[in-house]
Protein 1
Amino acid sequence: MLIAQISDTHIKTPGRLAYGQVDTSTALTACLAHLARQDTQPDLVLFTGDLADFGTPDEYAHFKQLLAPLGLPVYLLPGNHDDREAMRAAWPDAPWARRPGRLHSVIENWPIRIICLDTLRPGSGGGHLDPEDLAWLDSTLAEKPGQPTIVAMHHPPFLCGVTHMDAISLDNAPDFAAVVARHPHIQRILCGHLHRPIHAQVGGRPVVSAPSPAHQVALDLAPDAPSRFIMEPPGYLLHLWVPRSGLVTHTMVIGDYGARHPFFKDGSLID
Ligand SMILES: [Fe+2]
């Protein structure tokens, strides 16, 4: 099983640039083209939030238009830039479309089970899970303790050292950590929000955040670091289930890097 994780696409209406500078539409198109060029196509594509930049119906319509060439199953969870009701209206067939409350969901019937969490707190950049959300996560994880599982969410349940991002992470991360610590079948916790590929550990479980296919958060570890982005190479993640080994995560760097070159010729390393 191969899972593509694309995060923080921040799609705007056609012709508009994020922060007046970033052409997020072209960036998503380049990301999908890069994915399409891979030898092995993923079984599904999981978008971990900030699909749109301001969560308007027009932005979601544009997002759907840009996704049209994809031809793969798509799963969505919201980020702080998204709007639940606008997402429900845009995807009326989604599992959460006709349910009130948060847009949690579970992707079943694959070797890896994926639990998608909605950490959005309307009006805030930061994320939160209420006691009932944590109870739902706990009981959903307990349903299939023998099945390798991914927990996917937008807000990181850890601090990364970039203070302005840490200020808007999952604000009750210790409560989340206590739940995942009880479930050793969690192979990986996936998040977005940080616009950088970052690895951490929460409740004894490995966590990775995805880069954005558009702009990255500037790495500035100063305590008073201002909130800034940088056009470092864009990317996305591929998560591969390797039987008898486990889940491995490949960071994909979007771009055209030319041909593939052999290491060997006639069975010998090229000197
Ligand atoms: Fe974002």
Note: The chain has one domain: 2-269.
Protein 2
Amino acid sequence: MKKSQYDVVIVGGGLAGISAAAMLSDQGKKVALIERGKLGGRAMTINMKGFQFNFGAHAIYGRDQSYLTRMEQDLGLKLYWSDFTQMKAKYDLGEEVSVVPSNIGGLLQTKLLKGMDKFRFAYHILFTMIGFEKGDPNVSIKQWLDRKKVSPAVKEMMLNLASSNFFTGEPEKIPSDVFFGYYRRLFKTNIPVSYIQGGWKKLVEQFVHVIESNKGEIYTKNSVESVTIVDDKVTAVHTKKTTFMAKQFIFAIPPEELKRLFQESAINSELEGYTDYEPTYVMFYDIGLKKRIESPYTYIFDKDRQIFISDISYYDMEAAPPGGQLLQAIAYLKSNEINDPKEHERLKERIEDFYDKHYPGWRKHLVIPRVSKVAVVQAIKWTMHQRGLPTSFPQLPNVHFAGDWCQGEGQLSELSFSSSYKVCQRILEEEAARRGA
Ligand SMILES: Cc1cc2nc3c(=O)[nH]c(=O)nc-3n(C[C@H](O)[C@H](O)[C@H](O)COP(=O)(O)OP(=O)(O)OC[C@H]3O[C@@H](n4cnc5c(N)ncnc54)[C@H](O)[C@@H]3O)c2cc1C
């Protein structure tokens, strides 16, 4: 069996692992990145009939506050952004549409809140922004809203916003501290949503470029099958053909894989706490059209059906061939819908109806659909019983964890980037401290 020695071995080549490998190799560390499939993990872009289908939208929320932007600056990534036009984001209210009140401009224009409720909502936003409203880890957002006797319209508004930002059909279960932490960031941003031109593929290519230019090694189609632990340290990970030894290890693989690899270790019982974790599931239904269907909005959310459509090609010029259009519909799945084929069919029909309503004639222009009935949009679903995995445990100090199932900031890929950024900082700081000592 081949044996190689590194400073840091990173297991898992999704956005968390690949960004960690880029940051550490950029700092002169000898790294190996091991991925069992293709790089990108859930963030992939597939070209079908000239349409760039992303496995999920490549929207980055609050990029001016984000860890991805820090990485972009630290690593000199060449990314081209297109920022979301806030006033083109609408709620479908049945008979009419209204602006999504996720900033002050939207708030003044929205038809969802009337009279005093607009001021009440503005008051909550202001309190969240200046940091007075922190929530309570033991209280769900629904309990919090009930206790504060928030008016029904404002309550509904806040839960709807949570639904679309946390990709969940059950926003009432989100812990109130997570909810307010998220909105504190979002309301401070000047750029609520942005798209990366060229999709996830462009971002992955940029990280790979940094790793390769710093002589980092990338092993795809290599699954880590086991780990060697001596005393309180992981000393090596093993694929079928190679043993990778290192001083530090980052595991950017989902909890069920971690439990398998660490079942004999001192952190087994810690990981057990995450055994029952439930991901956030969605159904997505993308359509590639040969001709654009013009619409006054680029994002439309139906709160009753819990579905939204984004006009991806409006923001990402590379998403559709010239003159064409790529639309993406996402429906949040409730717990009872995840394993029920009848529910999947029902949801698919609802999405088609929603397309009919807002993009009439789409069937005539359809070149290619892409449907995923059950997709993991985030590896953790925020509920009172589920919290992100810590990024390290004292029992194994040279082991670090990153991914969108870990404790971090923001939601979705920002959880992957923030946890990855933090573990890299920790590794670099610990090493600097050792050298200084
Ligand atoms: C429909 C949809 C829409 C989305 N929209 C957005 C959006 O608009 N904005 C946003 O920010 N995010 C979005 N996301 C979420 C985003 O895709 C994820 O948060 C992000 O890609 C997670 O990256 P990760 O590295 O944390 O995890 P993963 O991508 O799951 O990476 C884990 C990697 O580990 C590898 N692995 C597992 N076990 C092993 C092993 N034993 N050995 C080696 N490798 C292993 C896996 O193959 C995988 O590549 C969306 C996701 C979906 C599905």
Note: The longest helix spans residues 413-436.
Protein 3
Amino acid sequence: MSARAILAVALLAAGFGQAWGTEAQFERPAYAGAYEPQGVDERGLWMELDDHERGFRDSPLVVQDEELTRYIKGVLCKTVGQDRCAATRIYVVQDNIFNATMAPNGLMVINTGLLARVHSEAELATILGHEFAHFELRHSLNKFKKRRTGSDILMWLSLSGAAVGQNVGAVAESAFVTGLAGFNREQEQQSDLLSADYIRASSYPLRASVVWKRLMEEDDALREERKQRKIRRFTPGATDTHPTNLQRFAYFSEIEAQPGAIDGDDGAAAYRDATARVLPTLFGSLVKGNEFAAADYVIQSRAQALGWDGLLLHARGELYRLRGNPRDLVTARQFYEQAIATGSAPAEAWRGAGLTAMRGGDSAAGKAALQEYLVRSPQAADAAAMKMLLEN
Ligand SMILES: [Zn+2]
């Protein structure tokens, strides 16, 4: 079946077939309210999920930043409407993978790696809408009923999100996944299309294809670094749980080509402002991961869309310094110095500038920068080590 035919079938199956920009503005269907568990099995499942959520809420992986969480919830509410979003609790977790998940009790999890890779509220809305669509269409319920032990629930959660193919490699090899894959792919596409419908009823323009395009470019960068052949598949493999990035790019591009679909404020400036404060949190695990080319692609693509600032330049300096080739240290020092010149650098930029200057044999400049770091961050965990460096 062609992509267009698959799209048409999926649209009909989901009960949504209205074209964008027709006379009547798309209205969200009346919301039935959050689903209440039916019967003993489902109630048991909900209790397990509630238990899981209670433990999860205080997990060190969860980013405890109310302002950020409230902001994301606000984007979700604008996307799906107040009545629908009231049924959800959002948690941001420290994880460099591009992923988000939603459980049938309304628990929504967003990875920092996803927030680092989207550049506007409208882009974020396509992912939040997708997760909410799984929830509203109750996709997870049957699978949960069959597989409701704790580890299976966690496994399922990790698969049910918007994950990109290359990052679920280890998980995707298990037989468990093969069984779920086909089932999931259809539902993933259905959720993508319902997400587009939510957005059509919202004030956001549809900005979905570009997200999948960048994920393909990131994958290309990673493969090039590993000297692997670049792969852009249109047909999913047997164990793929999601449509391929190229498929998603293609069907979203078609919807975006409809009149009126991409009109409106995408909230890029608001997104930049809301996330600028937390860039170290959003980029931290990416920078410390071992996928240099992918992380550098993500940093540069944010800069291209939203501009460089002190925190982003610092993140790029850290990325190069941690890879640590002699030439990387020279490059890293330049990024730290550029970060400092913006006036919005974190104290750690002086630390990085100092360490890379000293490694490069410029010990006077290095010591001056480290001294400045200690002035700016006297309580730093590594203050004692830095003082030792200064005494040598
Ligand atoms: Zn999904």
Note: The radius of gyration is 23 Å.
Protein 4
Amino acid sequence: MDDSARVEKAARQVVEEHDPKKVPLREFLGACYDAGVAWVHFPEGLGGLGVSRGLQAVADEILQGAGGINPFAINPIGHGMAAPTVLEHGQGDLAAQLLRPLASTEHIWCQLFSEPGAGSDLAGLATSAVRDGDDWVVNGQKVWTSLAHRARYALLLARSDPDAFKHKGLTYFVMDMQAEGVETRPLRQMTGQAEFNEVYMSDVRIPDSHRLGAVGDGWRVAMTTLMNERSSIGGTSSVRGVGAIGDAVDLWAARPELRTPVLRDKLAALWTRAEAQRLTDQRARRSASTGSPGPEGSIAKVVSAELNQAVYEFCMEFLGPEATLYGDYTLRDIGRMEDYRGGIQQRFLRARANTIEGGTSEVLRNVIGERVLGLPGDLRADSGKPWKEIPRG
Ligand SMILES: Cc1cc2nc3c(=O)[nH]c(=O)nc-3n(C[C@H](O)[C@H](O)[C@H](O)COP(=O)(O)OP(=O)(O)OC[C@H]3O[C@@H](n4cnc5c(N)ncnc54)[C@H](O)[C@@H]3O)c2cc1C
């Protein structure tokens, strides 16, 4: 049996034995893990079948076609970023311990990277990790941490050697968000929702067995996370006309009285861009091998973020004065994930974050210029200096 047929058989068996419309979500997603269709390119026994990453589309079509929820929608950081990072860099049986509850969404994950003084310049971060016996002791503050208030585990990047150059003195950990000394405070976005948080760490102890990669090699591990983040955020549905462009078409269909020829032209142009992106993404996914995605994932991320914004701007223009009607800015949790996208005005407001989260479009254009096109590097005034000598605001 060829690999594609194996994937198809495994996915069909899951939906026959654990009908996603009838069984609890965690049971269905746990069964996907056990059958090797959570991430088909992962090894057998760890949620995969050891086949090409491109065959995930074969599994997803069957699983989602039967009504299964895409786990990325519930546990985006866990499913899209933590799983490949733990698999590639975890010690001993860490991946075996952590991946199944991650895949079933029993454990939600978050990403403790950004700090008040380190966003685009992530390698400048200041949260410290100091070795103490078999543990590390962590102190510092993170910010913009999506889903920290729901997370059981975090991907943490911290400074273990302030005397080293900024990219060299970092070490990467999996942190238990229920550990003593972790404090999570919600931050309200302009939608009113508190999707992300500030996270304070005061003498939090992390066992050395939860370190990913070598001491001082955290930047390389972070690259695995960031490349997977960009390609998973930038990835589109394989189904035509869903997502933002589907919202615009639905709005167009629902409100014939608001249509004009000029708006029709604009919608047609956006549809064409969305199709070009979907087909490019599909082609890239099908030709992807088993390894980690490379810097070219940044292209999909830039394109999808800017397209999303353009589509929701079109929706607001289409609605005219109605676009300004938005009822509730009070601080609230994101609610059930199914409700998370809210009404069309909320989606417009949320889309403003698309060109910031997961790396800003400006910074990703630098990544594309330097690492895909081979253009000369950005000016870096602090290169070659130990981190502790770099002036900080
Ligand atoms: C909705 C949302 C969710 C997020 N979730 C998480 C999360 O879960 N975990 C996490 O760790 N972080 C998260 N972030 C943070 C995100 O990664 C950062 O906001 C982002 O990397 C930008 O960093 P900054 O906000 O510090 O902006 P800055 O780095 O201060 O950038 C400010 C401006 O300067 C520009 N700029 C900076 N450097 C350059 C350069 N070299 N060349 C050209 N222009 C430049 C930027 O493009 C931007 O316009 C989230 C952000 C958002 C909006």
Note: The domain at 109-221 is CATH 2.40.110.10 (Butyryl-CoA Dehydrogenase, subunit A; domain 2).
